[in-house]
Amino acid sequence: MAEKTLSTISWQDFQTLSLPDKGPYFQAPPHHTLIAQQFSREDIEALCELATRVKRINKRREGANYLKTLLSDKRAMLYFAQPSSRTYLSHNAACQILGLDTMDVRDSKTSSEVKGESPEDTVRTFSSYVDMIIMRHPVGGFAERVAWMMAQTPRPIPILNAGSGADQHPTQALLDVYTLLRSFEKIGGIDGKSVVFVGDLARGRTVRSLAWLLSLFNGVKLYFVAPEQLQIGQDILELLDAAGTHYELTQDFESTMPEADAIYMTRIQDEWDSEGATTTDSSDFHIGAEHMDILKPTCAILHPLPRRQEVSTDIDNDSRAMYWRQMRNGMWIRAALILRTFHREEEVHRYYDAYTPPG
Q1: How many CB atoms lie within 10 A of CB 116?
Q2: Which stretch of DSSP H or E encloses residue 267?
Q3: Which of 161, 205, 259, 310 has a Cα at 20 to 30 A from 138?
Q4: Is residue 265 within 8 Å of residue 302, measured between CB atoms?
Q5: Which residues are catalytic?
Q6: List of long-range contacts for 59-67, beta carbons under 8 Å, 24+ apart
Q7: Local confidence pLDDT in tens for the 359 residues of the chain
């Protein structure tokens, strides 16, 4: 069977494909990371193991110096046309760990787009100077469009989607899964666990990507807790139905708390409102010290951040509050992803097996 590549399909035909059917088109060189649906469970577990090895190697000065040689021959553009702090900084830190030189544009107003240049031409320009583009863009599907466009050029380079509109955030989903795997490593892993998503699920691209990745694990049950107008989209539920994943929709957060092995909190995404304001009452969709006795002692509380009032600072030092560790994990899983993109993961494994650092 012929390999599926973006260079052999028209943009019109590609757009008609379902998300799972798009996945194989990103596996051929230059190995883009664009949607959660391109990853298998085996991919996820391999990336998580690689991330842990990078983290452990980096603990020693000799190891950290070794890691900086792995991609010292590469350059990356961080093109963030949408406000970001954590995602930008963790990708930048991941590049630094691997010795990957970076340049950035963090506001399209500082590029030639203000002169009327199309975003596509802007990205094509960036590709002349770098070996990878890490991009966040407010337009959904733009990362896919750029990847397809680059496939038609003489020098296609990998595109790493760091957030695309309100639809996909695959690297956030990977760091979330990594955090869950680390949190559950002594209690059987993710299989069979119940994960509760809370808040603005209609526009939370992190939830949309993570829900799919969790469907790859056995016996997982998902609870979607949100006001009716902010509930998870039907398109995601259809994907979960096709995967045979059990889920429940509810507005009663407290009733799900005793069942939760993990709780994934989100804020109201009012930056997507045309009027810049949300009138939805979200006061019942918060977690604080008063709820800690209800939760399992092994429950993991996650949040992609930034937070508002949905997670009280009173629980920041509770052993179940994983959101600060979750943020740091982003640096390691993104380093692993970049290494895999450039096919340098085996160099890490050889070093690790020869010089196993302290756990």
Answers
A1: 7
A2: none
A3: 310
A4: yes
A5: 86-87, 115, 136, 169
A6: 59/357, 59/358, 60/357, 62/355, 63/351, 63/355, 63/357, 64/97, 66/351, 67/97, 67/98, 67/99, 67/348
A7: 567 899 999 999 999 999 999 999 998 888 999 999 999 999 999 999 999 999 999 999 999 999 999 999 999 999 998 888 899 999 999 999 999 999 998 866 656 666 678 888 888 899 999 999 999 998 888 999 999 999 999 999 999 999 887 778 899 999 999 999 999 999 999 999 999 999 999 888 889 999 999 999 999 999 999 999 999 999 999 999 999 999 999 999 999 999 999 999 998 876 655 544 455 666 789 999 999 999 999 999 999 988 888 999 999 999 999 999 999 999 999 999 999 999 999 999 999 999 875 55
Alpha-carbon radius of gyration of the chain: 20
| Domain co-membership, 32 together with 158 | yes
Question: 349 and 312, same structural domain?
Answer: no
Q: Phi and psi at residue 134, in whole multiples of 5°?
A: -105, 120
Tell the residue number behind the tokens 């399992």, with chain if given: 296
What domain range is 97 assigned to?
6-169+328-354
Cα–Cα distances (Å) from 343 to 4, 29, 85, in that order, read: 19, 10, 28
Structure token digits, residue 359: 């756990």
Same domain, 198 and 150: no
The per-residue b/e assignment along 141-164, b for 16 or more CB within 10 angstroms, e otherwise, is bbbbbbbbbbbeeeebbbbbbbbb
* Side chain identity at residue 194, one-letter code: S
Does a structural domain hold residue 43?
A: yes
Q: Are residues 146 and 190 in the same domain?
A: no
Q: Any bridge partners for residue 300, and if so which?
A: 262
CATH of residue 192's domain is 3.40.50.1370
Residue 216 · residue 41 · CB < 8 Å: yes
The tokens of 17 are what? 């494909």
Same domain, 179 and 299: yes
- 70: enclosing H helix or E strand: none
The count of structural domains within the chain is 2
Interval 131-189: pLDDT, tens:
999 999 988 889 999 999 999 999 999 999 998 877 788 999 999 999 999 999 999 99
